[in-house]
Amino acid sequence: MVTTHDSRPTTPPRLAVIGGGPVGLSLALLMRQRCPAWSVSVFDTRDAAKDVSGDPRTLALSLGSVQVLERLRVWPGGQAAPIRQVHVSQAPPTLATPFGEPVVHIRADELGVPLLGAVLSYGTLLAPLQKAFLDACATPDGALGSRDAGLHARLGTAVAEVRTDGDGVVVTPEDGVGERFDLAVIAEGGVFAEQSRKAVTHDYRQTAWVGSVTLQGATPGLAMERFTRDGPLALLPLPSPPGSDPKTSRAALVWCVDSADDPVAPLSDAQRLAVLATRLPAAVGTPVGISPLKSFALGLNAEASLVDGRVVRIGNAAQTLHPVAGQGLNLGLRDAFLLVDRLASGAQASDAGVASALRGLGVARAPDRWSVIGATDFLARSFTWHAPGLAAARGLGLAALQALPPVKRAFARQMMFGWR
To answer: What is the pTM of this model?
Structure first.
């Protein structure tokens, strides 16, 4: 119970977070910092004792996301590979343009920032986030004298239903009784192929092949996006394991192709490596090794708004995107940050304040969400169009962006920090 200045006890407002991944746990820790009077419960099917550090999935984080995680004191900087340069180009054949070669170079030092972003494995990020969360659950701060305020772990608890009920929400665990909360945030998304369809959806009929490659002669800290006739191809720098050959480096690979005419599926690893070498620009080095690749279907699946009554969806639960821009997790962290900021500004313990915060949230997030969704969707769809001149137009756009430094800086800042 919270004791107010006139000694009347009140119940702290309650928030349920469904999903204990990076976005959900970041939200909970941000709430502890900014809204200590709230009671925050995190539900996830994963048991708290499970070792999550070995999950090898690759995450690309923008500088803004790194700064949020640094603020939470959970950023494992020594285990992440910084992105200090970005190279965006179009594979031949391409036409000459009045602005020069169809290549965009973005450098951290030219923008006056230490890095543009960073790359690390899912487990490397989730492990310190989960430890910080569980430590906070074990050491409540007694905000405003309340034994109930603070963080509460409901890991190992699957949620069967979340429904708005008047001025609150009822969260029903599997094999459990429904519990009433003031607000529920759904932060678990999954992948496109496994999701129920949302308000805005499109199957790109593309497949992403993901894994890692070993490079010789690579530029340290260089990330690459290459537009090819098959689809976008990306390499992201990875941390070098201890004892690795200093003459080589590793990079995460995202290779997107047409699902109906997949040139990657029938190839052996050696053949994939040979084909990949023909697709890459010289700037990224020479590929000399490739891991086994995994594939997944690509599509857009987005809610029209983050808010539905007293239920808020963030991250992949709100928008699942094509990986062409690498913005999925970054959007989710920005969703979480602004939600907490709104709640901290006017909804510490007031039901009217919660309603007001939620009314403004969808509008406040719309420019950032829809600019990223729109740009990503346009690029992804453009690889399914076969009208003459499209590749030339894309090359012209890249060259023009490189030739206009103020526009390029604005574009880079939006990739780092979102629409502000």
So the answer is: 0.91
With contact defined as beta carbons under 8 Å apart, do 315 and 369 qualify? no
Other beta carbons within 10 angstroms of residue 186's beta carbon come to: 24
- CA distance to 61, 78, 169, 391, per residue, from 165 (Å): 36, 45, 5, 51
Q: What is the pLDDT of residues 229-246, one digit of tens each?
A: 888 999 999 998 888 888
CATH assignment of 2-52+123-197+301-377, given 3.50.50.60, 2.40.50.140, 3.30.230.10, 3.40.50.1100?
3.50.50.60
Number of Cβ within a 10 Å radius of residue 180: 12
Residue 267: other Cβ atoms inside 10 A: 16
d(CA 140, CA 152): 9
Q: Which CATH superfamily is domain 77-121+202-299+386-417 in?
A: D-Amino Acid Oxidase, subunit A, domain 2 (3.30.9.10)
The whole-angstrom separation of Cα 32 and Cα 20 is: 15
* DSSP strands (E only) in 196-304: 200-216, 222-227, 232-237, 248-258, 286-290, 294-302
pLDDT in tens, 135-152: 999 986 644 445 578 999
Q: Could you tell me the maximum CA-CA distance found in the chain, to the nearest angstrom?
A: 75
Cα 301–Cα 305–Cα 307 angle in degrees, nearest 5: 120
